[in-house]
Amino acid sequence: MTDIQAADALHRAGDIDAAADAYRRAIAADPGDFAAWHGLGGVRLRARAYGEASDALRHALRLHPEDRGAWGLLAEVLFNLGEVEPAIDAYRRVAADPSMRAVAEENLAISLPGSASAGNADVLAARRAWGQHLAAGVSPLERPKRPPSGGKLRIGYVSAFFDKANWMKPVYGVINRHDRDRFEVHLVSLGGNPSAAAGYRDHAHDVIWQAGASDDETVARRLAAAGIDVLVDLNAYSAPNGLRLFLRRPAPLQLGWFNSFATSGLDCFDGIVGDDAVIPAAEERFYTERVLRVRGTYLAFEVLYAVPDVAPPPCSRNGGSLTFGTLASAYKLNDLTLGVWARILRAAPTSRLLVCAPTLGEPSNRDHLRARFAALGVAPERIDLEGGAAHVDFLRRYDRIDIALDTFPYNGGTTTTEALWQGVPVLTYAGDRWVARTSASLLRAAGLDHWVARDEEELVARASALARDPASPARLATLRAGMRAGLAASAACDTAGLCRELEQIYRQSVG
Fold this sequence. Notes:
Number of domains: 3
Oligomer: single chain
Strand order of the largest sheet: 3-2-1-4-5-6-7
Shape: globular
Number of helices: 19
Strand content: 5-15%
Structural class: alpha/beta
CATH superfamily of the largest domain: Glycogen Phosphorylase B
Number of strands: 13
CATH topology of the largest domain: Rossmann fold
Helix content: 40-55%
Radius of gyration: 24 Å
């Protein structure tokens, strides 16, 4: 058996570390072996060693520049490294192959909202294109007569993430407050189940559906038979295959909320819930859904699980030097974001940057990110890169951050709410699309409008001014000390108000 055959066998068996060693031996024997480089890239991708996978796949493509399989793997790797624009270019190259077009177009539909070079029209076009693949062979159901409900409106919420406490802060803030005398609540889980640990308060008459093991047609028929009046998607493109359920039209009214930060591109949704900050009237033409707005923020949240106490700002104990930071996912660390952060660090030479993300626990991913910063003129000793941790320990990283820096154009949602709850202000600017305004929505609802810059230039100027101002440590200490109380009293945490707004939307839309 050759080294390549042995490596491939190990790869198929799931022994990816041994497979990687075998591929490396094959490369040492023949540096021009495309299959060895391609295989090494594939196994390092599976190990989430994206930096090493990128190097291997680029080498493979230098040997065979038109290999669509290698381009597809590289696209996935680049996206996870935050190199969004090159990833999109790679997916477009893959889409030219008819046998790979559907998968490539799905990934384009997922990634384009976070592309600095794409706009609302591009996102709409990409999602419509993928929607055609998704809808192939899927027909709406013929719904049976609605069973009696005692006058209650039946609402179904669909999520693959009901067990994720950190993500569900807005969702459970609303669900826990529904008026059970007027609404019957159904939770349709495509993943883990709702639980008290995740923030859900059980109600005797709620119905929890574990649908993850069933096909979408079976689930749709069950929901239609149950007489669901309003079906609300909480996933959007975080679980894109779940959208097939909505193409079956099991409910007379179907809406997107919570994780919908752009149009679905599908005609099966009657409405999409946002607010004035994220969807201005002039952009409604980029939505296949009717835009429904709530007052305040559509992401009003409530923290229903244990988190660390708010700590004083680190600049108050390290001589006044500011530490900027982010706990955003690495796929948001695109060239625009790093460019903005690098400008801030160059303009504030005594400041530091802390970046924490689960993928940064892997050495080649850290090396890759450091190299990108170095190319922007930021010395590696000014940046701390750290991987994931248990969630409470992850949140304690905010104890070492004075000011959180947002990501562009793909803002924080959960990341922004967690930073604020830990007392750390988030510096952002309102961008050109919904996903670039989620932080602005939250900050304005929280009464923290002055942390929302007009544009990139103003953001850089504000950050550098804060870093130079000797009064910043005292101001940040005061802000942190009162942050949670201020948030709790603001629209940013008015989940009761958001619940009433959504209930009104449901009632009025059903008629």
